[in-house]
Amino acid sequence: MSTPILELRNVRASYGSIEVLHGVNLTVGRGEVVALLGPNGAGKSTLIKVASGILRPSAGQLMIAGRDATGASANALARAGLCTIPEGRGIFPNLTVRENLLMATYSGHKLSDIEQSTYARFPRLAERRSQLAGTMSGGEQQMLSLARALATDPVILLLDELSMGLAPLIVSELYQQVAAIAAEGVSVLVVEQFARTVLGVADQAVVLAHGKVQAFGKASEIGEDVLASAYLGS
Amino acid sequence: MNEDRIQTFTEEIGELKLRGARADREHWLLVLGVVGLVAGVGMAIFGGFQASGSAILEDQIAFLATGTLIGLALVIAGTALFVRYSLARFMRFWLVRLVHEHRSETDRLISALKDIESKLQQ
């Protein structure tokens, strides 16, 4: 088995004196989609913060491509190719689609190349290129955030609550895009509160509850009973 | 994705500078706030007494500038740090309490539903 591209080893994380993650282990392989599931307050977003370098773990290791990256800064990881799409999309609402894409040129890619690949992947954004991002629908905004992330040529993509506030049909369309991105070799860790929407495209799934991993395995093997026990308690 | 990209990525990760172990920053900033507050009050009082005890105007100004004014600045900065991190602590514990209560309520609800289900089956 090849070295996992992202690995959390017995990670503990806390906010002040309150520990939120109590020894979490997780691996994401190359080109794999791993779904991180769990109810509100389970520690999913905290785990994403640790994986992206925003929050330093109080114990444990963050391994990236087999190297110890514990304590690396978020911007250094982002520059190397670990891209995070935060909850709430993180686009610039007062800029147009084109200007939002311009913001991704920090990675060294030309705007014309970014636009070309973006509009090929999301034709709807081509129609909206001069529209203010904040005036687009939630689904289109999420497409823009995905497009901007992909423009940086990421190796790892961390997605936090992709489906938040979106209609099921749009969510399904976006997850098809996520599957296509993974098929190109990008490793994806996706946090999702609504399990059914993501299990269809995920290779592996991790169920987190109360800051601990309750279940880990192939997405197809995560049963309703495991999810019910994690979401409702038992 | 080609192997070159993965190779570049791996090399860049390997070259990253890692921050050393960090103590609880919030705790130390809270302590720093308290220390600043106490020291500021001390300096302000000391500066005030020294200024009032001196008949020379230049000395009075010097005591007021170095003691009282710096002391007041320390009091303001210390208070700001103390309030900021005390509030953060309080809000977090409040949030944890809410989460805990929510979980307890859910457990009670599930238990009640199970009771109803078992009674209906009888």
Quick structural gist:
The complex is a heterodimer of chains A (234) and B (122). Chain A is built from nine helices and ten strands. Chain A is of the alpha/beta class.
Question: Any descriptors?
Answer:
heterodimer, A: 234 residues, alpha/beta, four-stranded antiparallel sheet, B: mainly alpha, flat
Describe the fold and architecture:
The complex is a heterodimer of chains A (234) and B (122). In chain A, 44% of the residues are buried. Chain A has 234 residues and is α/β, with parallel strands linked by helices. The radius of gyration of chain A is 17 Å and the shape is globular. In chain A, the strands form two sheets. Chain A has a six-stranded mixed β-sheet with strand order 6-7-8-3-9-10, with helices on both faces. In chain A, strands 2-1-4-5 form a four-stranded antiparallel β-sheet, covered by helices on one side. Chain A has helices at residues 44-51, 74-80, 97-102, 111-121, 123-127, 138-150, 168-183, 195-199, 224-232; strands at residues 6-15, 18-28, 33-37, 59-64, 67-68, 82-85, 156-160, 187-192, 204-209, 212-218. Chain B has 122 residues and is an all-alpha fold. Chain B contains three helices and no strands.
List the helices and strands and how they pair.
The complex is a heterodimer of chains A (234) and B (122).
Chain A: E1 6-15, E2 18-28, E3 33-37, H1 44-51, E4 59-64, E5 67-68, H2 74-80, E6 82-85, H3 97-102, H4 111-121, H5 123-127, H6 138-150, E7 156-160, H7 168-183, E8 187-192, H8 195-199, E9 204-209, E10 212-218, H9 224-232
Parallel strand pairs in A: 3-8, 3-9, 6-7, 7-8
Antiparallel strand pairs in A: 1-2, 1-4, 4-5, 9-10
Chain B: H1 3-14, H2 25-52, H3 57-121
Helix pairs in contact in B: 2-3
Instruction: Name the shape of chain A in a single word.
Output: globular
Task: Count all strands of chain B and give the number.
Answer: 0
Please estimate the helix content of chain A: 25-40%
How can the largest sheet of chain A be summarized?
Answer: 6 strands, mixed
Oligomer: heterodimer
User: Mean pLDDT across all residues of chain B, rounded?
Assistant: 85
Shape of chain B: flat
Rg calc of chain B: 29 Å
Q: Structural class of the helices, strands and pairings of chain A?
A: alpha/beta
Percent of residues of chain A in beta strands? 25-35%
